[in-house]
Design a protein that fits this description.
- With about 425 residues, this protein is α/β, with parallel strands linked by helices.
- The chain has 21 helices and 15 strands.
- The strands form four sheets. Strands 1-6-5-2-3-4 form a six-stranded mixed β-sheet, with helices on both faces.
- Helix 13 packs antiparallel against helix 14 and helix 13 packs parallel to helix 15 (about 295-305).
């Protein structure tokens, strides 16, 4: 199976320029994907293009990632109704370095092989190009009619949004020049990206043809959607990021675990490297016993390990057991603060005076008078007697048990469980300990 066939069975090809498959069969080919460094982390919307590059390298070809330091200062009008905020060069450089670190988990930048990956910044070959030289050398090769025929331009000019500035109108020229520069300087003959980039990519192939008489190619993947029509990778709290500072490994794992059956069958082909036979077996298992959700579990495992680590995945599974299963107190003690807060995000929280815990206090006083976990002491006594109260996942049989600093999780938290599903998090600042 070659690169094109691999992407086809995985549902990762939307359109390909005629001759692309033949070019890839003929020789080791260099291809690039562009990423605008609008943040210092990729999100899972970027993962499709990154997976394409990883497959590309696996099949012996050379991937290039173009961080759009120049184009990122302008903003791609594709799929957008308003102009984006422009970023300064220092922010763009910082974002570039952070993105390269993330990409190193997927692509081999360090090897001496001819197909080792490269990361370049289009600001480096654009910053010294004088405006008059650019419009004379590049702009003259593409007509305004050609540029206005692109969907990204036409939709904005037809009233779908706030119109378009000349800055944004020039975006496809700049992206086309990227392809031309890479074609001349890196022997890059293929650009890949999402289907919304088809117009910008073919501008590049046309510029190469008109200016150099060369032949270059384009390949796009479908825009990933959810079965219910919602936007992929978006939650109520925003994007699902690859950087744990913005999306914890636990939340990342939960995102994949909670996708629908239809989405899981599609995503496991796109976002993992599992072979077809194994995926077919998982699909059959899902159809036979959908309540066991083998597709979602394997998808969540593969992507979490790939983006974070095996250790992060295992901790996320343990953390999920704390909330939804019969996890032990030992398991609770092991999870870090980041995961603990992610698991119990949204549960009622109470701030506790550190001196209370330092000196020790009765559970019944703490959970009725200090933190209103129970409305009255009599109700707490009844629930303790019926075995319905747990502190840090251990049931208590005495409401007068003394709660002190030995109960603290991560030196700061105490987890209270009332009944099966009601959790409360006590938080204290214990710097004096």
């Amino acid at each position: 199976m070659d690169f094109i066939q691999e992407l086809q069975w995985r549902g990762m090809i939307h359109n390909a320029m005629p001759g692309t498959a033949e070019q890839l069969q003929k020789e080791m080919t260099t291809a690039y994907v562009g990423i605008d460094p609008t943040a210092d982390s990729l999100h899972i919307g970027h993962l499709v293009s990154v997976m394409m590059l990883r497959h590309f390298q696996r099949f012996g070809h050379k991937p290039i990632v173009v961080v759009g330091g120049a184009t990122g200062m302008i903003g791609d009008p594709s799929m957008k109704s308003t102009e984006r905020n422009l970023l300064d060069i220092n922010t763009l450089r910082h974002n570039q370095e952070a993105i390269k670190t993330q990409l190193s988990r997927f692509l081999d930048f360090t090897g001496n092989a001819p197909n080792s990956a490269e990361l370049v910044n289009n600001y480096d070959w654009t910053k010294d190009y004088l405006f008059l030289d650019f419009i004379r050398d590049i702009g003259k090769h593409l007509t305004v009619n050609y540029m206005m025929a692109k969907d990204s331009v036409r939709k904005r000019l037809d009233g779908q949004g706030e119109g378009m500035s000349f800055t944004e109108f020039s975006y496809q020229l700049l992206q086309g020049y990227d392809f031309l520069w890479l074609y001349e300087n890196k022997n890059c003959k293929l650009q890949m990206g999402g289907s919304d980039q088809w117009g910008n990519i073919t501008t590049g192939t046309e510029l190469i043809r008109r200016k150099l008489g060369g032949e270059a190619f384009a390949l796009t993947c479908p825009l990933i959607t959810k079965a219910d029509g919602g936007k992929f990778g978006k939650t109520e709290s925003g994007n699902i990021w690859l950087d744990r500072r913005y999306t914890s490994p636990y939340k990342f794992y939960q995102f994949w675990l909670n996708v629908s059956d239809l989405d899981a069958e599609k995503y496991i082909k796109i976002f993992t490297f599992l072979p077809k036979e194994e995926i077919d077996a998982l699909v059959a298992s899902q159809q036979a016993e959908p309540h066991l959700r083998p597709l979602q579990k394997r998808l969540a495992e593969e992507v979490t390990v790939m983006v974070h680590s095996r250790e992060d995945y295992e901790q996320a599974v343990e953390a999920a057991q704390i909330l939804f299963g019969n996890a032990t107190a030992d398991a609770l003690q092991k999870i870090d603060e980041e995961t603990l807060l992610a698991v119990f995000e949204g549960v009622p929280q109470f701030q506790i005076d550190k001196n209370l815990i330092e000196n020790g206090t009765k559970a019944i006083d703490l959970l009725v008078e200090t933190a209103a976990v129970f409305p009255s002491k009599s109700e707490m006594r009844k629930m303790v007697q019926s075995g319905g109260v747990s502190i840090n996942k251990e049931k208590i049989d005495n409401q007068d048990i003394i709660i002190d600093k030995n109960f603290l999780l991560n030196n700061k938290y105490i987890l209270i469980q009332r009944g099966k599903k009601n959790y409360f998090l006590l938080i204290t600042n214990l710097n004096s300990f």
